[in-house]
Amino acid sequence: MMATEIPDSLEDTTKMSVRAENRIYTIYRINADQNQEMNYNAFTQHTPISHSSSDQLSQQENTVYMEIDAITPKPRDTLSEKEKSIRYELGLCLYCRGNGHIVLECCRKLLSAKVNNQQ
After folding, report:
1. How many domains does the structure of the chain reveal?
2. pLDDT at 2 exceeding the cut of 60
3. Domain of life of the organism in this record (predicted)?
4. I need a labelling partner for 94 at 20 to 30 A (CA). Which of 13, 69, 78, 109 fits?
5. How far apart are CA 19 and CA 30, in angstroms?
6. Is residue 88 part of a domain?
7. Is residue 102 in a domain?
8. What's the pTM?
């Protein structure tokens, strides 16, 4: 697997990294299941693998959970009258400042739960 070419897309990179991680985990599990006392090399350090509940509790205490708020979009502030007039004069979108469309057609604007009832 190490002699493969560099992937061209993000999807291929993700697939390759998942395969590498699975192989590393498999090797780890194989080595963990074998008896560690069979290695007589004095220059390598092997710590015995313990599956006690105290180790698992200490690992759970050190767990850092992902902050969901960090990825949720924050509401935008309202535009000042000066900024609105500048965008009107330049023909820019009031939402994204893009050219060639208006707010109702803006692809960057998230769909809100409110429904436009105009007919």
Report:
1. 1
2. no
3. Eukaryota
4. 69
5. 16
6. yes
7. yes
8. 0.32
* Domain membership flag for residue 5: no
Q: How far apart are CA 27 and CA 25, in angstroms?
A: 5
Q: How far apart are CA 45 and CA 65, in angstroms?
A: 32
For residues 109 and 96, is the Cβ–Cβ distance under 8 A?
Answer: yes
Amino acid at 44: T
Q: What is the CA radius of gyration of the chain?
A: 28
Convert the pLDDT of each residue in 18-72 to its tens digit.
998 999 988 888 887 665 555 555 566 655 555 555 555 555 667 777 666 666 6
Helix (H, G, I), strand (E, B) or coil at 101: coil
Q: What is the token pair recorded at 46? A: 């092997």
What six digits make up the tokens of 29? Answer: 């599990």
Q: Select the more confidently predicted residue: 80 or 41.
A: 80
Residue 55 placed within a domain: no
